[in-house]
Amino acid sequence: MEAMGTFTRLVCALGLALAVAPSAAARAQTPPQASAPRDGWVVLPVDDYRALRAKAIPTPPPPDGPPVEATLTRIDYDLRATGETLSGRALVTVDVVKQGWTRVPLPAGLMVSDARVEGRPIPLVVESTESTQAESHPHVLLSRQGRSVLALDLVVPVAASGGVETIVLPASGSAVSRVTLTLPRGGVDLVVNGGFVTERAEAQAETRWTVHGRAASPMSLSWKRRADDRRVAQALRMRARIAELVTLGEEISTVAATIRLEVVQGLAREISLAMPEGLAISQVSGTTVGDWEAARGSLHVRLLEPSATDVSLTVHGELRAPRDGAIAVPLVRLESAERETGGVVVDVAGAGEIRDRRPRGLDPADPSEFAEVVSGRESPSMVAFRFRPLSGGDPRSLSLDLVRFNPEAVLVANVETARYRAMASEDGRLLVEARYTVRNNQRSFLKFTLPAESTIWSAAVSGRPVKPGVAGTDSVLLPLQKGRAREEAPTFVVELLYLQRVESWTDKGHSRLTLPALDLPVSRTVVTFHHSPRFGVEPEPGLFRTATGSEAFSDPLFHASSSAAVAPAEPPAPPAAARPGNEEDQAGLKALADRFRAESGGRVASGSLPVRAAFPAIGPSIHLASELTPEGQAPSIDFAFKRTR
Q1: I need a labelling partner for 129 at 20 to 30 A (CA). Which of 42, 148, 436, 583 fits?
Q2: H or E element in which residue 291 lies
């Protein structure tokens, strides 16, 4: 009607405008004139007018409908065993988005006997696909927009095999699926596939589980009668391995302990650990840890489920220890364990080092034995101790003396002299011995960046063999001695021996000797290069100059002959204790060995022990020297060699 009214008004306006104009017939009889306007009547059919109007004022397209007509939001099953089947109800929460009648699909495979919406019966439509008549797709038709709860009375068949009863609930598109299963008997274990158990309640004549399933995944529930477990009544017996890392800081010290329990007998429901006094527990983690409580020097950890196998957990804590001086290292213990293995690793955070150690019930060990707590950590001040078996309830303790260095004092760390002896073979092997005179009251370690394809043979600090730490692909760390603050730091010697693969020598060519790069400046560098007597070698111009006189031979260790070859020396005479016939010395040596074996508890250290290898100075030599090598720079020397007759 509104469109017809608009059309009538337009026609009236058009007729009024054309009434004052001459008719089309009169204009046709009048000869055309250039200046006369062309006026007349225009008559249009209604359909043409509507078409023109639709083009001038297009009608906006209707809005798009929702992407889905309805969705299943939640399905709650409440099932109870009745003989060979399970009967119950399923409450299906449906959110309808479309206006008008909407088709809502239900999970396929459910045996539904009745369907209701808000107490009103609703028909259940079952359709079969054309490809297979056995597959059915049930659905219901809803006419109301919004949320509705559909109640389905259903029966679920139970499949029994070998004493195990199983039901399978079909997959659905709902985001939440919950099943409440009730069995009229006790002593039953339930296994769930496609979901997990969130609640279990057991009485004498009934067992109830609450299970949540995964979206778009079928859920399988299997149960069987629980077998009698005699371990419940057995006394608990455990074995423990404790790996503890104690980091001594200037204000706060941290403790991280990894505990692994092996249940030998019974079931472990709760673990009680003895904590040192003053240790504040900050975190207890583990896959089976349920809850924990720390009070009165003990830590009680409750497990999610009783365990008859292995249990692993990690404990983190903090305590306030003295900054330096005598420190009692806190030890985590499991006193109820029938056997306790593992150990403790102590590290120093900041400028400091450990001087004196007083272990009781502990043996020295290598930190690499406790990879679970020291993985990825490299520190020259790190020490480790292994638990020794105790008898009679003897206490186990560890105390040490920690020396801190004042960072505000004048700090000195440099290499006064670096002396190298290198021996090159014709087949491409280069043996290098480095000897550094170091003065230090600042650094904890010295970093070496070795040339490519180098292998360390030995290392020593002040004549004592040490195991270098790894700092990178081609970098190692050696611990340094420290002088006291505000005092002149004494010098000591750091030694390193390594083998390097280089290019083989031909009849004539050039070779380069690349030395290690240090993270400290070097005041003076002296190099003694030994080579084959069948070659003539000349150094090329560079940073190094030829050294002569006392500059090349100031260190007795680097005395070398410039002759073509050095004859092997006679072997030294055996010591008096090793000569046959000296029974008193032999008895004293045996007593010393027995004493060492008794004090160490008959144990041996694992891994390779640090050794100190000797450098064979053979062949003619060339002596070179240079000054002022910056830190981080790897000095190098170029040689020209030629085979001689």
Answers
A1: 148
A2: strand 289-295
